[in-house]
């Protein structure tokens, strides 16, 4: 949904139970005209959708967020000043669904932390 338009994956590695991707944000995407015109900021919903899409890529199937135990937005992402973001998703299948821990960060800056369940 966002991949290939809002962002592009520039690198991805996967091992059992974990996937890491580096994405490059498209600062010219129309969403930034409204969020916000003079100070573009990646919306939290787009950060969460990115986590979902990286997980789907690893699992090779569609998933739906069932429960967010923790979702913390720690710093804003300005796509002009910070076009590259590293997405790390650790996942484990349990009875309740896919237990996921994810972060969006770049070097020493952590933008988002997430823990929750996907189906």
What is the CATH homologous superfamily assignment?
Answer: Hotdog Thioesterase
The number of distinct β-strands equals 6
| CA gyration radius, whole angstroms | 14 Å
Structural domain tally: 1
Indicate the proportion of strand residues: over 45%
Uncertain regions spanning at least 5 consecutive residues: none
Please report the first level of CATH classification, the CATH class.
Alpha Beta
Number of helices: 2
Q: Structural class, please?
A: alpha+beta
Largest sheet: 6 strands, antiparallel
- What is CATH's topology name? Thiol Ester Dehydrase, Chain A
Order of helices and strands: EEHHEEEE
**Spatial strand order of the main sheet:** 1-2-4-5-6-3
* Average of per-residue pLDDT values: 97
What is the straight-line distance between the termini? 18 Å
User: So what's the overall shape?
Assistant: globular
User: How much helical structure, as a percent, in the residues?
Assistant: 10-25%
State the CATH architecture. Answer: Roll
Give the tags.
6-stranded antiparallel sheet; globular; Thiol Ester Dehydrase, Chain A; 3-hydroxyacyl-[acyl-carrier-protein] dehydratase; 119 residues; 2 helices; alpha+beta
